[in-house]
Design a protein that fits this description.
- The protein is mostly beta strands and about 70 residues long.
- The strands form 2 sheets. Strands 1, 2, 3 and 6 form a 4-stranded antiparallel sheet that branches.
- Strand 4 and strand 5 form a beta hairpin.
- It is elongated.
């Protein structure tokens, strides 16, 4: 089985949305903003600051990494 991993550092847009199933399993949804600051390329072209929004979904044990959620 292949595992993909990504590290995103940013700011949350709202409180996490928590859903608990009848089995006790949890799912947490987070809206996360990451920003790339303005920079100038080697040829002098200015690239403006850009913010991207990510919809992050955590399952089961990964929910414990959310500060307000107890897994």
């Amino acid at each position: 089985m292949a595992v993909n991993r990504a590290t995103l550092l940013g700011h949350t847009g709202a409180d996490p949305k928590v859903h608990v199933f009848d089995t006790g399993d949890k799912v947490v949804q987070i809206s996360l903003a990451t920003t790339v600051p303005e920079f100038t390329t080697k040829d002098g072209h200015k690239v403006p600051e850009r913010t991207e929004w990510h919809n992050v979904v955590l399952y089961r044990g990964a929910c414990r990494y959310c500060g307000k959620v107890r897994a």
